[in-house]
TrEMBL record:
Ni(2+) binds at residues 75, 78. The keyword Coiled coil does not apply. One of its GO terms (molecular function) is nickel cation binding. This is Periplasmic [NiFeSe] hydrogenase large subunit HysA. GO terms for cellular component: periplasmic space. It is found in: Periplasm. Heterodimer of a large and a small subunit. Fe cation binds at residue 78.
Length: 480
């Protein structure tokens, strides 16, 4: 991992040793981690998002319909999630109700991207924390002491799947393009539904590709995640964090608010319904003007201050009811609590994810939740394919309102995603985005509370300060 610069003292001395990892590699985006290690464990952590993006300012004064295209450029991995959140905000502002075919088309576009993103995350970003590839790029450079525990035969299987997963991801992109126009940055998700009326030929081509993807998920991806729990069983007890979770819900099943992956909030051991008014963003330790702290996204402002004393990140610190909350597959699977896959039930000896309790809140627990979610979404996509009607309308036209507000809440593969739009004189007067990773990779808030990744790093074992492999494992388990 590039940029690891520990002090030269051994961890066993009991002295605090600061390790800087900059950049954290094998993630999407720009992230820096600074941890303090004492007694072979992390005792403090700071996570820095080092890039200012400013899409809120780019959107100011533009045609509201531009938002679904422009916001996709926030992320090259999950552009469809931003298109979806933006379209939902516009649907709300324009007062549009989708056709069933439009809803299903959007689900199939976003669903294919979910599968691609989860496969990408495990195989091409996280897997190299658990298996050794050949001594050539992209498998090197790597830590000298990288704590690899897989027997050779299983390691070889994992590396083979790494290569196969590249082809599977390409197929997922083709599925997105069949209904969304292209990938990345789809053209098909717009206010009012989807621009592409599916033909029987397009749906058949999608289904043919989907069959290969689902087979890979059920026969290779899900099983190998559980195989890691043998040699890496201690990672089911590492990386707990705050144990608070948020999910806005995703993949609508109707126009009444029912979703495949359910909305829900889990705070201090109790479940709550989602209330958007409970969300506030704090910036005491972020490079934004202090005047913007403590605001709900509907009141939010984006005023950067890169020279602000004491700040250390371009990520705001969102809080739900004043407390840090984790988003992502674990949060969604916790809120939904569906039956596990056949492999999951066999390996874990339980029926539902919540049945394994605190093991969910761990490095491997997050990987298990992501793999199980992938299988769940794939099963739903098979059903949506049977519901899609060739030649039936997917788009409802609507005029731009003179003045309106809209809120779009959905899920990106890596967490809870919110877009808010304020329209005045048929132009964007304010646009606010609370991206998925912001919930996990944020800095301390005005109350001094660590962000979820920062908190989950506390107690992570670092027996060798020159090879802090578990720090990388923990951070990547969140898929930032």
């Amino acid at each position: 991992m590039a940029g690891c610069q520990p002090q030269a003292e051994p961890a066993q001395t009991g002295k605090k040793i600061k390790i800087g990892i900059d950049p954290v590699t094998r993630i999407e985006g720009h992230l820096k981690a600074e941890v303090e290690v004492a007694g072979g464990k992390v005792v403090d952590a700071h996570i820095t998002g080092g890039m200012y993006r400013g899409f809120e300012q780019i959107l100011y004064g533009r045609d509201p319909r531009d938002a679904t295209q422009i916001t996709q450029r926030i992320c090259g991995v999950c552009p469809t999630a931003h298109a979806t959140a933006s379209a939902l905000a516009l649907d709300d502002a324009f007062g549009v109700e989708l056709t069933d075919n439009g809803r299903i088309a959007r689900n199939l576009i976003l669903g294919a991207n979910f599968l691609q993103s989860h496969i990408l995350h495990f195989y091409h970003l996280a897997a190299l924390d658990y298996c050794n590839g050949p001594d050539t790029a992209p498998f090197i450079p790597r830590y000298a002491n990288n704590d690899m525990r897989l027997p050779k035969e299983l390691n070889d299987v994992a590396v083979g799947q790494y290569l196969e997963a590249l082809e599977i991801r390409k197929i997922c992109h083709e599925m997105v393009a069949l209904l969304g126009g292209k990938m990345p940055h789809v053209q098909g998700i717009v206010v009012g539904g989807s621009t592409e009326i599916p033909t029987r030929e397009a749906l058949n081509a999608y289904a043919e590709r989907f069959k290969k993807v689902r087979q890979f998920i059920l026969e290779k991806y899900v099983p190998i995640v559980y195989l890691l729990a043998g040699p890496y069983g201690d990672l089911l007890k590492t990386g707990v964090g705050h144990k608070n979770l948020v999910s806005w819900g995703v993949f609508p099943l109707d126009n009444k608010g029912n979703t495949l992956l359910k909305p829900g909030v889990y705070t201090d051991g109790k479940d709550y319904a989602v209330d958007p008014a409970m969300i506030k963003e704090y910036v005491k330790y972020s490079w934004f003007e202090d005047s913007t702290t403590g605001l709900n996204p509907t009141e939010g402002k984006t005023l950067p201050n890169p020279n602000k004393p004491g700040a250390y990140s371009f990520i705001k610190a969102p809080r739900y009811n004043g407390k840090p909350h984790e988003g992502g597959p674990l949060a969604r699977m916790w809120a939904t609590n569906p039956e596990l896959s056949a492999t999951g039930q066999k390996e874990l000896g339980v029926t539902r994810l919540r049945d394994i309790g605190d093991a969910c809140f761990s490095i491997l627990g997050r990987h298990v939740a992501r793999a199980e979610e992938t299988a769940l979404v794939a099963a739903a996509m098979e059903e949506w394919l049977t519901q899609a009607q060739p030649g039936k309308e997917t788009f409802v036209p609507a005029p731009i309102p003179d003045s309106a507000q809209g809120l779009g809440m959905t899920e990106a593969p890596r967490g809870a995603l919110l877009h808010y739009i304020d329209i005045k004189d048929q132009k964007i007067a304010n646009y606010q985005i609370t991206s998925a990773t912001i919930w996990n990779a944020n800095p301390r808030d005005d109350m001094g509370q660590r962000g979820p990744i920062e908190e989950a790093l506390i107690g992570v074992p670092v027996p060798d300060v020159n090879s802090p492999v578990n720090v990388g494992r923990l951070i990547r388990s969140f898929d930032p």
